[in-house]
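Morning, I've got a small favour to ask if you have a moment. It would help a lot if you went through both lines with me. Thanks so much in advance, here it is.

***
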Amino acid sequence: MNATITGNWYDRNQRFLSAALVTVRAALMQCAKPAESVFGLPPIPEESNNVPDNISTPSAIEALCIAFGLSHFERDVLLMCAGVELDSSFASLCSALHGDTQQTYPTFSLALAALADPHWSALMPNAPLRYWRLLEVGAGNTLTTSQLRIDERVLHFLTGLQHLDARLATVVEPLSATGNLVPSHAALVEEIIAVWTGARAVLTPTLQHLPAVQLCGNEMQGKRAIAAAACEALGLSLGMISAHAIPLHPDEFETFTRLWEREVILGGSALLLDCDELDSADSARERSISRLIESTRGAIIVSSRERRRALHRPLLTFEVRKPTPGEQRTLWRSALGSAALTLNGKVEALVSQFNLDTSSISAASAGALVQHTSEQEHSSLAKNNLAQVLWDACRMQARPHLDDLAQRIEPAASWEDLVLPELQQQIVRDIAAHVRQRGKVYETWGFASRGLRGLGINALFAGSSGTGKTMAAEVLANELRLDLYHIDLSQVVSKYIGETEKNLRRVFDAAEEGGAILLFDEADALFGKRSEVKDSHDRYANIEVSYLLQRMEAYRGLAILTTNMKSALDTAFLRRIRFIVQFPFPDAAQRMEIWRRIFPASTPTEGLDMTKLARLNVTGGNIRNIALNAAFLAAEAQEPVRMAHLLRAARSEYAKLEKSLTEAEIGGWI
């Protein structure tokens, strides 16, 4: 039952319940007459003759009897137990019938003796009173003499009050519809409504085994909003349980499912099973999830990233994606209000770069407007305009999903710090241009309409350690004002089948919202030349490579891979990389330029000869180590950085490299 409780219905239900209790009380009084002189029982009150008003919507006790198929006797047993809780005179009646002032509770024995139309089958474990746990049987020597007590959830239901059973409330979270949905999500709601409405027409009304609905994809908030909207439209209350909260022990699982199915009947409820963060390696939990989906009657929605395989119960799958670019533009303009008019088309840039849902757009807009207003109030010349504040707010919205999976690098390098040959410099600048202009080329100019394959922007940075691969990634992050995350592929690759793909999927899924720059280090750990398939391990290794290629081609951000050994990479893999930048070992002219730029302007130096320093045959990374070590030596000696400090630092760096300084490199330094 899911009756709308109005004030009139509530009052009439109370009168109906009171009259029903008086009838049961009268039956007990009649049976207790021989003990009346001993216990001083009160007479039957006059209200027992009152006939309640007709209730157009069934009273709670009537609805309960219909829903659970209670006989007249079972109904009165339940009312007798409710009477003990609601009317103190019932306790006196019970003690009189038991012949013991201490036994103030009802029992099956008392019910069989006092109530009309008794039948023994009402006591059976599979009969409604015990199967649906409408009442509890306490401790006792026999079933018939054990104390009976009405379940608290059922008692409140009889009085006209709805609430989730306390035993379920610890694991089931109520969800409500959050407001207007974007058109693409509203369309999915209509499909779910159509499916369940059609199924209801051919299923029994008491407890329907509706087809299960599966919502797939990474749009967690969208899936919940769709589920809540569909249930609200159908008059169902929605509760969500995490897959991790499903009981694994058979007895606990049975208790949960029985109580939930009872809730479906009492409250017109639907269950949202959240499997989004599920570890598929947990086989015991997987079995419990499958059993819950298959066996639990009523409306059930499954939320998961990947499609789950249907077993026996019909399982209808809907793919839930982020709002479309057009819908996101509408959401931004709505959230920003009149402020959107001042952005001069910058909303397009936000939609092109960030793939946010409704709640994230709302949160980013609200935070940015507050910050921007505050800056304007405290400074006649605000440090950031609204577009910049919005951009940074979007980055903040996307960070939490990726911070737990990869190391975020705060980029410090700029174009002035990057020393590369002209060709390589230009390729890096082209990468930045592709990221900036992809919205115009893909959407406005229509390239995305030809298919999404190959639209991901990816690059391979190849070269020995210290040649500037990571610095170039930092330069791009600074130029594009995007977050940069470092992923060590040697830690992502797993020897267990399927684990590598799962690790990669988590990274890409988390990065999608903000289009962060992903820097995959040690690419050859995964992307070495694919072997011929000689056994299952070779086959799965090739699957891992193919999976990453697929995700890179679809990723809306920039993915950069680094390797020290380009020759070790599969040529088929290289063909699918848009940009390949070879970072050469720096020649003398490039090393001199690196030395010129290596010391910050505030660092005191004296007598440094860049021509001599450039003779050191090392990479830019080594040059930075030498300069930094020399700065510490000079600071400790309370002197400016001199050639002597650099010589000492160079000897230390060469020792680390297991190389010897030659006279050609350091001759004439001091």
Residues 37-51 have pLDDT under 50 and may be disordered. The chain has 29 helices and 14 strands. Residues 7-32 form the longest helix (26 residues).
